[in-house]
Amino acid sequence: MSLNSPLDTFYGRVLVIEDNSDIAMLLVDFFTDRGHVADCANDGITGLHLATVNEYDAVILDLALPGLDGIELCRKVRKANRASVPILMLTARDSLNDKLTGFDAGADDYLVKPFELLEVYARIQALWRRSLHSNRNSLQVGDLAFDCETLQVERAGERLKLNRVRLKILRLLMENSHRVVSRQEIESYIWGDEPTESDALRTHLSAIRQVIDKPFGKPLLHTIHGLGYRIHDETAG
User: Is 154 exposed, middle or buried (0-12, 13-18, 19+ CB in 10 A)?
Assistant: First the structure.
């Protein structure tokens, strides 16, 4: 799969845990301007709370934090059922021992201050792609499960049947459940540059909705008018 695929481009929710307000806002503004949702915590206790109660696609973590230092915070995040979230440590501590301690605590990457914003972004993109590819064997949104190896779909334990094109659409939406996927993105992923009937995508999405939602009462496939579509369990927050 090409790295230019929509599945390999990071459009996610980022948590910045940094006590320097200027650096924190610089990072938040940078990611927000590029279409991401960015939250911020200025101390370790708040950062730990946000990281463990919310679903993030990446965490940027300083080490010298008030309340709870970054090393201990990282360890606690890894123990709190957040084993797969990519964590980039961003710190002024540049000794080899500091780096080894950070990796031992569960960090995926380590970048020393001062830094370039584009390098932070590139590293987060790389961590995201690595995380995405390593977790593609199965996808789960609410009680909807997709086995990417067998292409079997189940909801609430009931086996569901979809044709090849609809399986591809569903997989794209589930792999990007953290965001809205535009109509143009779906069409490009499924059909590339080939022309398609104007109502083809609508027909497929309607059929998917009939299979995965109608028999179960609670909708997971949502139309975000003017923006696109999203697979999301609204009761999960």
Answer: middle
Angstrom distances, CA of residue 62 to CA of 89, 107, 196: 6, 11, 48
Mean pLDDT by groups of 10 residues along the chain of 237 residues? 40 88 95 89 95 87 93 88 77 85 88 91 83 68 89 93 92 86 86 74 94 94 92 77
123 and 172 in a single domain? The answer is no
Q: Which residues form the domain of 192?
A: 138-236
> In the chain, helix, strand, coil percent, each to 5?
45, 20, 35
How far apart are alpha carbons 66 and 89 in whole angstroms?
16
Residue 1 falls inside a structural domain: no
| Token output for 20 | 């320097």
pLDDT for 3 equals 35
Q: According to the model, what pLDDT value does residue 47 have?
A: 95
Split into its structural domains, the chain has a count of 2
Q: Is the dihedral of CA 130, 133, 138, 143 positive or negative?
A: positive
